[in-house]
Amino acid sequence: MISRVPLDRINWKTSVFLIGTFLLSITVVPLYLWKNGIDWFQFAFFIFMVFATGMSITLGYHRMMSHLAFKAHWSVRLFTLLFGAAAFENSAMLWCCEHRRHHKHVDGEGDPYDITKGFFHAHIGWLLFKMEAEPPFDNVADLQRDPLIAWQHKWIHPLAFGMSFLFTSAVGWAWGGAQGALAAFLLAGVARVVVVQHSTFFINSLCHTIGNRPYSTRCTARNSWFMALLTFGEGYHNYHHEFQHDYRNGVKAWQFDPTKWAIWMLSKFGLTQNLRRVASEKILLAELGETQRKVQLKLAAAEAAGSTHSLVAETIARMQEIAHEFASYRDEKMEVTRERLLELRRELNEALSNIRLLDVSGAAV
Ligand SMILES: [Zn+2]
Ligand SMILES: [Zn+2]
């Protein structure tokens, strides 16, 4: 049964924008590409804007501002605020407020993108429909004191349109006149917004659905290398929920996490500092604890199903056999020792009696 959604619950502005840009990306954009093709500059500019805006969210909004995982030079903060605005995910202040609530109330009432309310809700539904009440900015006092973040929050809508559509069209114009401006507007503007937005939405939906949970099963967050490819390294979401202040999400050296590499590279130029890392023994302990818990659960389940019963019985029988063997070996050894002691005593007595005989004969001499 399809439940009806009251019209006054629809977030019209957001819905029209999200659905409109998506529809343009699957109709007008491919049509334009089919008729006009694409030159190397437009392609490179599209890729640049995907990374600049996508990583302004993961590096800036998420790891730096929501979790304070490192500190950054004002130029890095300004860049992520400008290009982050172009991702059309609202201001850093609102984004962080919602994200901190997500971590605090994950999978429960108060989690804005609670996966237990369904995949669609966690992915995009929570944006299309109005929330019950406006979130209070009671968990972002630190960000409200930051003049750059407060400035971006005040001017978020002009900044978003300016960076996303005017800036991209202007760059396209400089490269190829009116035709170049249209191409950049459609590719580096519209299509790029859709790509980056769904990359972020995947973190709230798929990263709480597919993958494994090597660090903790306390919440639905999962680790997936495939999702890391689509989310600039945020796919190691189980680790992130367990250790949210670590600047790395893919904590192993080989795990694909371009956001972690960018933060580390910037630190080599003095543009980021105080990179927070969880001690490796603490990470290992979490992994070991979780592995032990899973093994115990599996054993209990298998035993309940009767499949390990014979194995356990066999193991116990063998252990009893070994204990019996050991006991008889010990008894045997003791018997040998006892006999040897008796023999020694006999030899000693014999020697003593010989000495006594010698003494008697000596005394007689
Ligand atoms: Zn999450
Ligand atoms: Zn987070």
Put the structure in a nutshell.
The chain is an all-alpha fold and 365 residues long.
Characterization of the model:
The structure is a single chain. This protein is mainly α. The chain has one domain. 69% of the residues lie in helices and 1% in strands. The chain has 14 helices and 2 strands; from the N terminus they run αααβαααααααααβαα. It has a two-stranded antiparallel sheet with strand order 1-2. The longest helix has 56 residues. It is elongated. Bound molecules: zinc ion (2 copies).
Mean of all residue-level pLDDT scores: 89
Largest sheet: 2 strands, antiparallel
Measured as a percent range, the helix fraction is 55-70%
| Secondary-structure element string | HHHEHHHHHHHHHEHH
> In which order are the strands of the major sheet placed?
1-2
Low-confidence regions: none
What attributes characterize this protein structure?
single chain; about 375 residues; mainly alpha; two-stranded antiparallel ribbon; 14 helices; 2 strands; about 70% helix; about 0% strand; elongated; binds zinc ion
Secondary structure: elements and pairs:
Blueprint: H1 12-26, H2 28-36, H3 40-66, E1 71-72, H4 74-85, H5 92-104, H6 119-128, H7 141-144, H8 147-154, H9 156-204, H10 225-230, H11 237-242, H12 258-268, E2 272-273, H13 280-304, H14 309-364
Antiparallel strand pairs: 1-2
Helix pairs in contact: 1-9, 3-4, 3-5, 3-9, 4-9
The chain binds zinc ion (2 copies).
